[in-house]
Model the fold of this input.
Amino acid sequence: MLKLLTLEIRKYHLWRYMKGVIIANICFFALLALIYFMETKDGNVPFDSYDMAFSIIGSAVRSTFTVFAAVLITRLFLEEYKTKSISVLFMYPIKRQKIMLSKLLVIVIFTFSTILLSNLLIGGIFYLMNQWLHFLAEPMSMAIFARNMISILISSIASAGIALIPLYIGMRRKSVPATLVSAVLIVGMTSATSNDFSMFSITAVPVSLALVGVLSAYLSLRNVETADIA
Done:
């Protein structure tokens, strides 16, 4: 399986996406800076607490890389079917399900790692900047740190599952736009915030959606051994 994963990464030059990941993280930092300068300019407090700041960071990171995952789905799955190049892969003496599972794992690992590492990076930068600028009076306690680390980990795992939901829609319709639009709708639904409350803040919601994503992946690929390449 590791060899298949490596081949998928090389075949699609997925390391090139790291440039996009770096640019996205720069944008996340710029967003935080913009919020800080705009709010302080108007005499307001930009962030009430670490929880609020990490929630904003998490929402931006999660939304961005969920859409990234949908782009990967279109490349690794839909383009293979649309160009019929998937038929060449299926000629190899390897089970089709194993080939498709390797593609699936690439998406899951990419989504989990980028969301986790980006949250840690931007959150760490935010903490260091706060030590210098003191725009948060609240000190960083062990309880706050542990609570947000657990939240980031759960969010990363759940998002890796949620990112698979567009796969089912894309494979059913063999449509790139449908895949991307479904990802944007999922992001909009889970990231919408009202009075510092979002659906993602209820642990049961992202966990349930992650399970839906896993089920979607299973339904998308369960008949791949016998299905015709349409």
